[in-house]
Amino acid sequence: MKKQKIIHASGILLFISLFATPILATQLDTTQETTVVRIGVLAYRGYKQALQRWSPTANYLSSRIAGCHFEIVPLYLNDIRKAVRNANIQFTLTNPGNYADLETRFGISRIATLQSREGSQIRVRYGAVIITRADNTAINRLEDLKDKSFMAVSAEAFGGFQMAWRELADHGIDPFRDLGELRFAGFPQDKIVLAVENASVDAATVRAETFARMVESGMVNAADFRILNPQHNPGSPFPLSTRLYPEWPFATLKETPRKLATQVTLALLSMPDNHPAALAAHSAGWTIPLDYSPVTALMRSLKIGPYEVLRETSLWALMKHYAYWFIAAGITLLGLITLNSYVTRTNHRLRETERNLRSEISQREASQAALTRYRDNLEEQVMARTRDLHQTNQALEKSRVALRKLVKITSAPDLNHEQRLQQLLETGRKYFELDVAVLASIDGDEHRICTTAGDPKLVPEIRGPLNQRCATYLVEHLSEPLDVPDVVNYTSADSSCCKQGWRSYLGIGVMLEGRIHCTLEFAGTKMRHSRLSQWDHELLKVMAQWIADELERQIAYEAQRRHETEFARVSRMSAIGEMAASLAHELNQPLTATINYNNGCLRILKNSQPDTAKLIQGLERAVEGATMAADIIRHIRQFVQKGEERYGQVDINQAVRNVTTLINHEIRRHEIELVFDLDPDIQPVAGNLIQIEQVILNFIRNGIEAMDQMNKHHRRLTIKTQAMPSGMIRLAVSDDGEGIEKAILPKIFDAFFSTKAEGMGFGLSISRSIIESHQGRISACTRDQGGAEFTFELPATAET
Question: Pfam family example for this protein (predicted)?
């Protein structure tokens, strides 16, 4: 902290020293008359917003500088140029691109740079975002914008167009030639974001801060947009599509008195970061002016602003723009002619004294030869250094492309665990230009190949890694890479490498929970002349870490699935326990009937002439009762069984009948009218029958409990199934209870939430987990005619 204060104080002293000398020579009028000082501000979000944001800063300057009253003049880009040309303002606060143009054309000078605050972070650079609608699947990259409509502020807007222009140009897109339509909407920038949201244009660009403020204020929803060319820069808290550039400069016109400019500079630099003026401007005060060469580089790259002349190639245009240089060249040429005349006369005199100066000439020739040799050596060194830099840049670019692919793979939501590992290995194999990649797990002394990529013929049929000795090295040296350009001359490699056809090897250990969990190995059939570069080794470490993260997520996911499965089984056991009395009654009826029929058959058999027809009829009825009891017991055993999840085609109507068979006595005991509205033509769904029956049972039991206090003549439970146009199968269980209170409706499916005093809050939470694991949707609502309705929807599958 002390070091930062010293640096900040040094910057202030530097500016005081720059402006102090002219102050001694130029004095302002010491009268007490108030002077109006105008500050031209770029109104990139409209005049009203500009006045609200910057008027407190003007008031602050008025309070700090006696005899001056500062006022804000909101201006658009073209208006700022006119105001500076006519000297209608004394200071300007504009975007970096406009400032660079004004500096070249009119000689304005920056005296401070704006600091922006985002939370606890203070930043002095900003960028822009290029956005499209999230549901616009035709646009995923900048290259996809070709022949699409695009909206920006104006061609001169720095954050509102030129930042994005540079990124488009780097991706081979000329916005004025390749886009289907390029529209400039002017300020404020809010309407540009709304145009994308309303699908008036395919894509647009605005300042990143503007988009973030609109999301923060609730004007738009960030989920409705996709940010193209996303950039990850620790210097900005906002999502970015472009590079970062210095924040807005506060600049003075050359006509502004130096003393006044100095006073404004000191006042701005001394503004506390929590001053009301800074807070109103969404800033953290001001700092010394930054280097705006990145802005100049952008303009030079795009040939705009001061470099617009580069687009002109005629001789007259060049002479007009470089008039001073042509004049200087003419003067230089005249001087050279004069010098040549002088040298000629001097040479004439030198020839007369040649004999006396021969020794000196010899020394000069020797010196010239030495300088020539030095120049040749220097050129060779420069060329060698240039080659090295070019190779380094190529390696960095290759690493950047590979990292982008790795990030895309690890963040792809449509890939499962095995697919991610497979694509990670394939990307690494292609990056290192090797023929095979293997991920082998380590469990004690046992190795097992998990995933491979590349030529399967090069993968050994053994269960171990590619090379046992190399794998042992990786385990002993933890996460350090092992790079073997020539396996034949590597003493630690075993003979199986050559037999398998490998000539080069690359490997690293994958750390998980503080130990080597598996080995990541690559092998090639060609020998390499040297080890891979440091950047390649660093990328290999990144791959190993990402594979470790993926394995850790998969382990956690499998543990969670086991926990949820066991939790659901316990819930089913609990439900069966709560229905024990009803189930006992359900079993008692068929068993009692079976006993009575058997007793009747015994009495018939004891007669001297038994009635065979009645005997057969009694035995058949006894078998029916015993079969019904066996079916109930079998279904209960299936419902509470523990084992692997069995997925298949499930008939929702049959699942409803299975559950109502279990809970039929419970329904009759509560005197509830059970109504079925089952669509006989619905398609089956893919899922686990027991889990789906558990959800239906939870819905029915909730309905029974909801109507427990209702009039017996108004207890109706309706179960309805239907096929939806969206291809989903919908099941709804509705009751005539009191419904669900609006306050608790959002929490109805939360774990441990229950409206019953003895409830644990597990049933509906488990139901939601089951339905979501089947890629379905679950919901609850209060019906308009009274009562509650619980529904779920599952994807239908073609019946085979």
Answer: Phosphonate-bd
